[in-house]
């Protein structure tokens, strides 16, 4: 009888224990900043709705490069004190033809700053259009793979891979996802974030 009571008490504690709230910082560019639409319908806002037990801060800025993200990060870390930083940067570096070595150096510094603050880090893979040439595009993509391996962090596959080929999910500029695509991006990102927060 005593064992049964103890089991019931333990089960009750397990059920009623709330999920530990975490602060998540999204450090991104226009893909994270909901370019061309209200931020309230963007994938970061949708993640906040899907995971209300956590607090999401969207630190994304349209046109942002890795250098710009690196400059802004210390202030964001101080104000947000995140448990997890999701880095979604590099697209504008690629569009401007910046050297992959510069991209890599900036991303490593961003990751180091985030880790030193006590936060976990997730890195989102970024790809550039093939018209930049196979040599550049290959080196650009390799940067993310190398960093994820060297820094021992998870690399989220580029979410635009399954969106960009579908015109109905893209804005007229052919670069940015539209409002219809935001739920797909949130669905893509959510399991990675949930896994990072439970490890």
List the helices and strands and how they pair.
Layout: H1 2-16, E1 23-28, H2 43-50, E2 55-58, H3 66-80, E3 84-88, H4 91-95, H5 100-116, E4 120-124, H6 134-151, E5 154-156, H7 182-198
Parallel strand pairs: 1-2, 1-3, 3-4, 4-5
Domain SGNH hydrolase-type esterase: 27-183
InterPro entries: Ester_Hydrolysis_Enzymes, SGNH_hydro, SGNH_hydro_sf
Protein name: Arylesterase
What does this structure look like?
- This protein has helices at residues 2-16, 43-50, 66-80, 91-95, 100-116, 134-151, 182-198, and strands spanning 23-28, 55-58, 84-88, 120-124, 154-156.
- The longest helix has 18 residues, at 134-151.
- The chain has a five-stranded parallel sheet, with helices on both faces.
- The chain has 199 residues and is of the alpha/beta class.
- The chain starts with a helix and ends with a helix.
- Residues 1-21 form the signal peptide.
- Residues 27-183 form the SGNH hydrolase-type esterase domain.
- InterPro entries: Ester_Hydrolysis_Enzymes (IPR051532), SGNH_hydro (IPR013830), SGNH_hydro_sf (IPR036514).
- This is Arylesterase.
Which strand order do you get reading across the main beta sheet?
A: 2-1-3-4-5
Reading the helices and strands in chain order gives HEHEHEHHEHEH
- Radius of gyration, rounded? 19 Å
Largest sheet: 5 strands, parallel
How much beta, percentage-wise?
5-15%
Cα(first) to Cα(last) distance is 36 Å
In oligomeric terms, what are we looking at? Answer: single chain
DSSP helix count?
Answer: 7
The low-pLDDT segments are 5-18
| Structural class assignment | alpha/beta
Helix content: 40-55%
Mean pLDDT: 92
Overall 3D form: globular
Number of strands: 5
Signal peptide: 1-21
Protein name: Arylesterase
Keywords: Signal
InterPro entries: Ester_Hydrolysis_Enzymes, SGNH_hydro, SGNH_hydro_sf
